[in-house]
Amino acid sequence: MVLLHVLFEHAAGYALFAVKEVEDIGMLLPQVEQSVLNLGKFSSVIKLSAFFPFKSAQGALENINAVSEGVVHADLKLFLETNLPSGGKKKAVLGVSDAKIGATLQEELNLSIQTGGVVAEIIRGVRLHFHSLVKGLTSQAASKAQLGLGHSYSRAKVKFNVNRVDNMIIQSIALLDQLDKDINTFSMRVREWYGYHFPELMKIVNDNSTYCKLAKMIGNRKELTEEMLEAIEEITMDSGKAQAILDSSRSSMGMDISPIDLINIESFSSRVVSLTSYRQELQAYLQSKMSQVAPNLAALIGEVVGARLISHAGSLTNLAKYPASTVQILGAEKALFRALKTRGNTPKYGLIFHSTFIGRAAAKNKGRISRYLANKCTIASRIDCFSEVPTSVFGDKLRDQVEERLAFYETGEAPRKNLDVMKEAVIQASEVAAEIKRKLEKKEKKKKKREKRKLEALSTAEGDDEEPKKANGEAEENGDGLKKKKKKKQAAEEEPEDEDVLTNGVDEATPAKKKKKRKIDAVEAEPEEADVTRAEKNKKNKKKKKKKAEDE
């Protein structure tokens, strides 16, 4: 009796293989590894006991999705119940490649499951020789089924990706950090380049973006006049600095510069200015995206720090799964492992150090406030991840709690209880969610009304177009009838005139159409006259013959 069966999930369907001499195979594992590559040896080890082909591509996708998620599909359950041997002293062992689906099969069907070891080697051989083990299945058909199912599976995973909204935040925060580095290096290049001509400007203006704007506007320092003082004040937002720039330009130690060099410096500084403006736009986009995706986390710790936490975790879902201790040191992994290796002090904070709370706390309270802040960040991220309607009510309440804890560390004033704060937050969040739902319903109603109006307008326009067409058709029919009547009347009037012309034999001055008709009538009349003359001749000939016969 075969005691081991192996389940193999293929793109074409489910296959159940019976393994012969399971104890011998378990003892001789190296021989199994060698026999996998040879089809003849491998076919003597296993035998196909049942095969369930998928009926459609949609059914195959549903079954594979269930297997990947560790859920037993109804088709798989029916297949195993009908084909696995039941009864006997020993239970049949089912070999499965994935331990997750094996655990669910053990719970639902009460089977003994085996994974790894011999089962993994057997499944490797089955995967290699599957098209030869199943009758009627070619290698080309199996590869086509795998390709089609792989495309549909990956397309479904991309379409229904739970982290797809987080990708924009991750990319924007990465681009924001890269822009900060690039703008810093480019502005330093502008400072060095323009510093040869106007070195005193570096000491007066410290901000990189304002320096690039001034370098673009001033150009040649010798051409700087008092008329440009107002424009300099608009850039620097300081009249004292503007006057200092004007005074230093008159007594500058810088070298003279050619117009071509000035053109290059101005073009490069304009590029840096455009990059700084784009950076501001990107930050505004990041703030709006964070308010949509993770409003509570953004309200608690800020948009930039919250986006960095999401980016470092990989997604908002991953961040929500992390415990508070992991969130506390997220971003300080190197320091943590170095401390564990050298048996030193572990880091107290990671990325959350950039929040304002830790900077405001005293040195002895930095570790305590970072631990408390990490706890609140995990709560906020879980609310954002699993709530249906995103609101920032919980984030505001959690921020107030952190503020109260800071005040408690400094002054000793006791903060409010967490239970009372959360009750208030739940009431406010339900009210805000109800308002948001009402607004969404109103928008949907307005959209439906607009669509109805558009459809009505289109239907009325089509009706208006059809009416003139019908009227034109009726008018054309009436016109055709009138024309036919007129032609009949003309023909009736012309017939007696033609008869008169033929009888009298006199040509009268008539139009071209009447002449044509007369010609046709004359042509038709000529054969009739010829027929009459022939009949008269025949009668005469008959009479002559009769007379001759009588005379004889």
UniProtKB/TrEMBL annotation:
The entry's protein name is Nucleolar protein 56
On assembly, the entry states: Part of a large pre-ribosomal ribonucleoprotein (RNP) complex, that consists of at least 62 ribosomal proteins, 45 nonribosomal proteins and both pre-rRNA and mature rRNA species. Within this complex directly interacts with TCOF1 in an RNA-independent manner. Core component of box C/D small nucleolar ribonucleoprotein (snoRNP) particles; the core proteins SNU13, NOP56, NOP58 and FBL or FBLL1 assemble stepwise onto the snoRNA. Interacts with NOP1 and NOP58. Interacts with NUFIP1, RUVBL1 and RUVBL2; RUVBL1:RUVBL2 seem to bridge the association of NOP56 with NUFIP1.
What high-level taxonomic lineage is stated for the organism?
Eukaryota, Metazoa, Chordata, Craniata, Vertebrata
Principal location: nucleus
Compartments reported by the entry = Nucleus, Nucleolus
Tell me yes or no: is Nucleotide-binding among this UniProt entry's keywords. no
- Pfam families per the UniProt record, alphabetical: Nop, NOP5NT
Its biological purpose: Involved in the early to middle stages of 60S ribosomal subunit biogenesis. Required for the biogenesis of box C/D snoRNAs such U3, U8 and U14 snoRNAs. Part of the small subunit (SSU) processome, first precursor of the small eukaryotic ribosomal subunit. During the assembly of the SSU processome in the nucleolus, many ribosome biogenesis factors, an RNA chaperone and ribosomal proteins associate with the nascent pre-rRNA and work in concert to generate RNA folding, modifications, rearrangements and cleavage as well as targeted degradation of pre-ribosomal RNA by the RNA exosome.
GO molecular function (one): snoRNA binding
Per the record, its GO cellular-component terms are:
box C/D methylation guide snoRNP complex; small-subunit processome
